[in-house]
């Protein structure tokens, strides 16, 4: 989906209806603004960051015994 918006004299833009509908953006919602590789990215701010980030990068721990990993890390702290 590509559409255009016009920047107002106050540097404001309106989020197009189709984007609001697809992302579930409502009046009063906050958007995170990020500039990445010459692009402006608008991301709906999560209502609850804990829930939003839960399980992030869980695949990093696939096949690893986390209890054993923590034990080795703690031993390394006491050895130094």
Give your account of this protein's structure:
The chain is α+β, with helices and mostly antiparallel strands and 80 residues long. The protein has one domain (17-79). It is 32% helix and 15% strand. A two-stranded antiparallel ribbon has the order 1-2. The relative contact order is 0.08.
The coarse overall form would be elongated
Helix fraction, binned, reads 25-40%
Give a quick account of the main beta sheet: strands, pairing sense, barrel closure: 2 strands, antiparallel
Provide the succession of SSEs: HEEHH
- As a percent range, the share of strand residues is 15-25%
Number of strands: 2
Give the distance, in angstroms, between the N- and C-terminal Cα atoms. Answer: 55 Å
| SS content category | alpha+beta
Overall tally of domains: 1
What is the C-alpha radius of gyration, as a whole number of Å? 21 Å
Number of helices: 3
Report strand order across the widest sheet: 1-2
Average pLDDT confidence is: 89
Unreliable runs, pLDDT <50, ≥5 residues? none
Write the layout of secondary structure elements.
Layout: H1 17-23, E1 31-36, E2 39-44, H2 49-53, H3 66-79
Antiparallel strand pairs: 1-2
Short synopsis of the structure:
With 80 residues, the chain is α+β, with helices and mostly antiparallel strands.
Task: State the main characteristics.
80 residues; alpha+beta; two-stranded antiparallel sheet; 3 helices; 2 strands; 32% helix; elongated
């Amino acid at each position: 989906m590509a559409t255009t918006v016009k920047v107002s004299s106050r540097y404001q833009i309106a989020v197009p209806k189709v984007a609001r509908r697809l992302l579930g953006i409502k009046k009063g919602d906050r958007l995170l603004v990020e500039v990445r590789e010459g692009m402006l990215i608008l991301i709906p701010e999560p209502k609850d960051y804990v829930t939003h980030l839960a399980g992030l990068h869980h695949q990093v721990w696939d096949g690893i015994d986390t209890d054993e990993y923590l034990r080795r890390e703690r031993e390394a702290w006491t050895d130094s």
